[in-house]
Write a structure and sequence with these properties.
It is a single chain. It is built from eleven helices and six strands. It is α/β, with parallel strands linked by helices. The protein has two domains: 133 residues, Response regulator (Rossmann fold, 3-Layer(aba) Sandwich), CATH 3.40.50.2300; 72 residues, Orthogonal Bundle (Arc Repressor Mutant, subunit A). Strands 2-1-3-4-5-6 form a six-stranded parallel sheet, with helices on both faces. Helix 2 packs parallel to helix 3 and helix 8 crosses helix 11. The radius of gyration is 17 Å and the shape is globular. The protein starts with a strand and ends in a 5-residue tail after the last helix. This is LuxR family transcriptional regulator. InterPro entries: CheY-like_superfamily (IPR011006), NreC/VraR/RcsB-like_REC (IPR058245), Sig_transdc_resp-reg_C-effctor (IPR016032), Sig_transdc_resp-reg_receiver (IPR001789), Tscrpt_reg_LuxR_C (IPR000792), WalR-like (IPR039420). Keywords: DNA-binding, Phosphoprotein, Transcription, Transcription regulation.
């Protein structure tokens, strides 16, 4: 059972998210919070697997909450929700450790897919967010590409292959099928890559792969 926390300052939005989560047999809503500070306190006291955070909240917003959770509960996976699609928010959310990013007008099934994906150690970006991220990478420029290529220079050939497939948005199962490895072995490679590259999650790894020209 995936234990989920919702943090949003709008009661109506929390009710809607709660209703969506309630349709899944493998997901349990364990707590609700009205702001990031309350969410952090709840996580300190209760076991939470996935935190669904609104970016814009009073007292402590979702971005600050994600940063705090990385310190107090690094095992908690974060899905960020927002009504805003600005590139700045996407970049900040990913750098703050979010593994999922959805716009609030996404289809209900997208939320369920995101929760399951991040709980499984994968990443989930809504199609609109993905297109924005790809657009940012496409205009990143030659200096950024050189920096990314330098970062991956110390990887083994197999690690580069795994990283390239992450850059294409593949899941662990897809990578395993492509490279004829078990899903468990792929997870080991992903964990090793993140440690070697000093990254927080596989979304950042995917962006690095694109910056380095490993994925298209």
């Amino acid at each position: 059972m995936i234990r989920v926390l919702i943090a949003d300052d709008e009661p109506l939005m929390r009710a809607g998210i709660k209703a969506i989560l309630g349709t899944a047999d493998d997901i349990e809503l364990v707590a609700e919070a009205g702001d990031g500070r309350e969410a952090v306190q709840i996580v300190r006291e209760r076991r939470v697997d996935v935190a669904v955070l609104d970016i814009r909240m009073p007292r402590m917003d979702g971005l600050a909450c994600a940063r705090e959770l990385r310190t107090v509960a690094p095992a908690v996976r974060v899905v960020m929700l927002t009504t805003f699609g600005e590139d700045e928010n996407i970049v900040r959310a990913l750098s703050d450790g979010a593994a999922g990013f959805l716009l609030k007008d996404s289809a209900p099934e997208e939320l369920l897919r995101a929760v399951r994906a991040v709980h499984n150690g994968e990443a989930y970006l809504s199609p609109m967010v993905t297109s924005r991220v790809v657009g940012m990478v496409a205009t990143s420029g030659q200096p950024k590409r050189q920096e990314a290529q330098k970062a991956v220079a110390g990887l083994t050939e197999r690690e580069v292959e795994v990283l390239a497939l992450l850059g294409q948005g593949m899941s662990n199962a897809d990578v395993g099928a492509k490279l004829h490895m078990s899903e468990a072995t792929v997870k080991t490679y992903v964990s090793r890559l993140l440690a070697k590259l000093g990254l927080t999650n596989r979304v950042q790894a995917a962006l690095l792969a694109r910056d380095a020209g490993l994925a298209s």
